[in-house]
Design brief:
- This protein is an alpha+beta fold.
- The protein folds into three domains: 195 residues, no CATH class; 88 residues, no CATH class; 110 residues, Immunoglobulin-like, CATH 2.60.40.
- The strands form five sheets. Strands 10, 11, 12, 13, 14, 15, 16, 17 and 18 form a nine-stranded antiparallel beta sheet that branches. A three-stranded antiparallel beta sheet has the order 5-6-7, with no helix packed on it.
- α4 packs antiparallel against α6.
- The longest helix has 27 residues.
- It is elongated, with a radius of gyration of 33 Å.
Length: 479
């Protein structure tokens, strides 16, 4: 805590000075979110389960005798089910990042921070850790009472059990993370035998520590102060964006009352000022004060308020997903839905689908063979038999298919003149997902070429599928 001292002096200079301290930063107030049930809460639980089944389960899937999804940084090969990508396929990663960014823009324009409230890893793991905390220490009031009480054997036991389970989940999360880079079955054997390498050990512990700290302790602080999305989200909002809103026209003036009380006679709105919406909020805000950047659009306040409305016999939706225009009475429910297809949304959607289709077509048309041709710079050219001239090259053929294949090599000049390739093997066999490096000689009649460098093109074609081919340009020297 930083503080500055303010010297306050009265009109009489001889009077002793009075010093006060003013805090420059707010002291963190621990938040104890209350458990809530409802339609939106069920959606959040479903998405937590879905994302974690995918995250924890994907590395254990096998495909053609290998891990289905593996980013082998050492071999610089990236396997995604039946596809293998290489560093030179970076353009595909760029496409995925563009799709992710456009999706975020689209979802935000339509319905605000859906990503934050339902699928962000920080939100998901915080929900998981909170569930563990509730199961061990109890719901909101019990946790508050436990923290305020002195240390006893029971309190120590509950805290120790909670943190032990937190640490186990965090370490398993770190282990799974590294399992996407190192084959997870191999990694598991190394962990059990305490033979993991230094980098594997570091990343398991680092990612585990980050999960433990962020989900167990920092929680809403990450969303409020560390996440940049909270700061620029407003640039993607407009009055037709669906946001979580409190209907103050219906709810105000708020006030406590019995279930049988007549609201009209009492002069109060639907809000009974119970504070449930604040108690269930994971970031501790009061949605009744209007939209705030701390709101992660999780919808917990909607479920909490609807439960109270049910008990009071009032209509649900005092807090709901709606737009600023609809809340102001400008739009009917029908027009609210129609405004979801406004120009901004249509533009985002069109661009997004365009990129998705382009990326899909590019992956589909991607050739499973790659070729690189490098001319031997140590020997420009040399005479060969029958008055011909010879150049030396090194061909690198990559077979990305998961089966051994044979490839036929050819060489032609750019104007269609054929050149002869002399090699130990043609066609050449390349093992599955491997690269083969070949030294070849190319001979031609010098009378057919001009002196100096002549542009030529090598090609390799799969013997079992002619459409699978690759080309590489080089030059043929005639002296």
């Amino acid at each position: 805590m930083m503080a500055q001292k303010l010297r306050v002096v009265t009109n009489n200079e001889s009077v002793a000075s009075q010093e006060t301290e003013q805090a420059l930063y707010e002291v963190r107030r621990k938040i104890y979110p209350r458990a809530v049930h409802g339609v939106i809460a069920n959606w959040r639980v479903a998405l937590v389960l879905l994302t974690q089944i995918i995250y924890y389960g994907l590395p254990w899937l096998s495909w053609n005798g290998r891990q289905a999804v593996l980013f082998d940084l050492v071999a610089r090969k990236f396997y995604v089910f039946g596809l293998m990508f290489l560093p030179q396929d970076f353009i595909f990663l760029t496409g995925i990042l563009v799709i992710s960014a456009l999706s975020l823009f689209l979802f935000t324009a339509v319905a605000g921070r859906l990503w934050c409230g339902y699928a962000c890893p920080q939100t998901v793991y915080t929900e998981m850790f909170l569930w563990i905390e509730r199961k061990i220490e109890g719901d909101r009031l019990k946790r508050m009472k436990l923290d305020q009480s002195g240390w006893t054997g029971r309190k120590f036991g509950l805290k120790a059990l909670k943190h032990a389970i937190w640490i186990a989940v965090a370490l398993w999360t770190g282990f799974t993370f590294v399992g996407y880079v190192t084959p997870i079955k191999t990694l598991g054997a190394e962990v059990l035998s305490f033979t993991t390498g230094p980098w594997e050990t570091f990343w398991i512990l680092f990612y585990g520590f980050a999960t433990y700290g962020n989900a167990g302790f920092m929680r809403e602080q990450v969303c409020k102060y560390m996440c940049p999305y909270a700061r620029f989200q407003s640039a993607m909002f407009d009055p037709d964006t669906l946001i979580i809103s409190y209907d103050d026209k219906r709810g105000e003036p708020r006030g406590a009352r019995s279930k049988s009380a007549d609201r009209a006679k009492a002069g109060v709105g639907d809000c009974v000022d119970c504070g449930i919406c604040v108690q269930v909020c994971p970031t501790g805000i009061d949605i009744r004060k209007g939209l705030q950047y701390e709101c992660i659009a999780c919808g917990a306040c909607i479920d909490g308020c609807n439960q109270v409305m049910d008990k009071m016999g009032y209509e649900k939706g005092l807090i709901r997903y709606t737009t600023q225009n609809a809340l102001a009475g400008k739009y009917s429910e029908k027009k609210l839905v129609a405004r979801m297809f406004r120009p901004r949304v249509l533009i985002y959607s069109s661009i997004l689908w365009g990129v998705i289709i382009a990326l899909g077509v590019a992956i589909y048309l991607r050739s499973p063979v790659k070729l690189d041709a490098i001319r031997d710079r140590g020997t420009l050219s040399r005479p060969a038999a029958n008055g011909q001239i010879e150049n030396l090259y090194r061909l690198q053929i990559l077979n990305t298919a998961e089966r051994s294949r044979q490839f036929l090599m050819e060489a032609r000049s750019t104007d269609g003149k054929s050149l002869q390739i002399l090699s130990d093997a043609n066609p050449v066999e390349v093992p599955a997902t491997r690269t083969r490096l070949l030294a070849v000689r190319v001979v031609a009649d010098p009378a057919l070429f001009k002196k100096g460098a002549n542009k030529i093109e090598f090609s390799v074609t799969a013997a079992d599928e002619q459409k699978d081919s690759a080309r590489a340009k080089s030059s043929f020297i005639v002296r």
